[in-house]
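the two lines:
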Amino acid sequence: MSPRDPSGTGMATMVQVESQDLSALGNRAAIAMCSTDTSYRSFLAACKTILEGLHDDVEQVRIYLLDPVDRMLREEAVVDHFGGQEGSDLIPLYQLSEEVTTKLVGSQHHMGDQWEILVPLPVETQIAGVLALVSYQKFPPHLEERILRLGRSLALGALYVRRSREAERSMQLLKAVTDTSAKLQGLEGRTILLENFVTTAVEAFGFDRATIFVLDDDGVNVKSALCARAGFGVLQLPEIPELPPLADQPAPHPHLPGLWIPIRMGSRRLGVLFVDNIYSLEAPSRDVLQPLVDLASQAALALENARLIERLRETALRDDLTGLYRSGYFLERVREELANSRRRKDSTGLVMVDLDHFKLINDTYGHPVGDEVLIRVADRIRQNLRVGDTACRKGGDEFIVLVPNLTADQGGRMAQRLIEEIRASPVELPDGRQVEIGVSVGVALFPIHAGNWQDLWSRADEALYQAKQAGRGCWSLWSTQSRLSLGG
Amino acid sequence: MAKDTLKVWIMPTQVGSRTGKLFTRAVATFRKAHPSLSLELRVLPWSNAWAELMRAYKRGDPPDLVQIGSTWMGTLTHLGHLAPVPDGMETRAAVAPWIDECVQVNGKRMALPWVVECSGLIARSDILDGAVSESGLATWDGFLSFCRELGENANKQEIDPRRPLPVGITCRPEPVTLHNLAPWLLTGGWKLGELLAEENPRLLSHPSARPGLEYLGELLRVNRTDEDSGAIQPYRLAMDFYQEGRFAFLIGNPWMIVRNLIDPTASVESRWPVTYLPIPAGPAGSATRGGGSVLAVSTRSSHQELAWKLARHMCGSTFMDVWCQSSGDVPAHLGGFWSRHGDHPELQKIRHALEAARNYPPHPMWATLERVLARGLSDILWSLLAGDSLDENGMAIAATVDEEIQSILQTGWDRIKVVP
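prediction for all of em together
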């Protein structure tokens, strides 16, 4: 039995509910709601105002606001005689009785030793939220109209906060797109750009995950995929999952709160962004789609820029005639690879290839034929590269190949193969004659023959010189004992 | 003195608006021992707890110490939100071995078991007395037959405690529906654990789920459950049972029995004598689902040591004596509560059920899957409630749900470890 209900009948008088102008109380609460920020604090202020007004009759006041997207009533604040706090209850709209949602009247029920009345906060024919009043007494039916007036006044405040929140959210999304756009345009390198893109999609838009699938030039096959997850780093997916057919327009996932957003540059598909709430299962708000599409357009621009820069950089690194790397980049690779080799504790080889009698070819057949010969040699070298090998045209008729994890035997076999394959690929002239091509090859190994790249380069050069001295068309491996061992 | 503020989130099932006061009382000695501690308690309802927790983790502002459902362990650990229990933090033995297994993920203890529950049948003894023995309700057939009898005699026009409807069942699309009804599927032979280990599992449409679904359909028919009663909130349903006498049986957690045993002067009590019964044995024998809550510390907490100390306090007798009295929760560990009350025949039955219970299989996406399964099960029940046969519509719904689950599992491409 409650001290407020000495008779124990559950129908004691509600003095304050009966005597007060509840419209005025509702107005004061609505003003309190509009006078703070748009967080739960505005509802806390309103709840406190109502509880102060109905102090003797009511034990607890709660306000719920309807989320029109997921049709959930979220408890914004709860205040009782011991204090107040941010609300956390959630009521699906379908669980409310028709009295409240359609007829816009109160609905009262017994909760243990207390009574709770749910009062609609009406906006025209629908509800913007619900006010819950808890009492040890049953709310007498003749007071219901008065309590409904309280709800009607309060609804104005609730509507104000909801619209303010929508405006704030739009501003935040706009800012997120603008900030990200600026950030993306300032970034160089595809990977860092993509990492920033997915991280922003998670942080600024509040998704559980964001995954970007980058497509090959064919616009169909996925080249790589990066996934960012809330609060954690970015993960490069080791295996590309099977994806549904990619649409040209944003599309929802059929089974998850998730959206596919194509990333396009004109008619070309560069990739697709997938944002989802696979863990929280919360429906994304409707207003998020357009900012995401805008963001995807910015990403497309940034990706395209990155692609062009990469292409330019690639072009700058390669020799125009043969397509092999120029020596500047090659040297970077040599230094890098020797450091790796030191860590791996294995050997790395430099294989130096020089055309035999190239000046004679140029003088006899002219420079166009000479160029053909150089291209042919570069092709044969390229065909002999393993993954991780790097080839370079050092200049003129000299080529170098960097071969990680190479033993002396393997180096010899590779040199021999190059000599034979190049010899077997003469250039055919328009009159049917064939220009034979011969090369000499020098091989040196790190760290067996040299402890740094400069010495390694010299040793390979020395080995090549020795092969030339030995009659050309052969290879030599630099050696500390006999200085050189010859093959071919 | 500078204050260390610990943010604590809890999700009490039955305490309601008294939680703050109760918690403050239960941690009084701990606060005395830690005068520089300031506690910021947030009380969440289960219906919203997962979403709120996920939002907090996404904002980077999670609670230091949080009560979580044991079924969330896999997912939260996978997401990297939980800090492992420090070495050497011992607790008393658990009531049943599966409780300790719940908190072990990849060989690491990621939380402290706190309270346990197992869904069963709560029966009004006044209805059973002289009409049927407990052993007569021990099988599907016996239970259904008695419910049929009750259904025929029930007063369909109004709530009549002398002529109640057979069973209070909620069919809402919420995890509690799955928690309450999964045992009926398991006793029917549902191979949930094995099925979930498959790459593209069929869960609800698998033949092993069918006997349980058929039985539940029959129960709904015998019960004459209509749309209104199928949609009742679990608390309201419990009140309809305990206070109004609307049903003879309630499917759910026996919190009221526990609470009234410990504190017969509680403000809300059952107006009828009630007793706990295990789920009747089906074709696959007897089974029930065990679950409960564990206490976990967030990886982002800057007060992990203090949070673990508080977690340990919350598992101890000083806290639990206060807490269980009002909540009706049952401690996960032996000693204290169990030493004092364990001899009571009702608690012996509950303990026996806990020991025999099975928990859900550990899975990194279980928190997502359980909500999809709950929604799917609810859809099937609503279809049965509307008079469709399982073949007409129910199994098609089950197949759609399974398709959804497969699709979600295929989309879980981040299930491999992410280095923070």
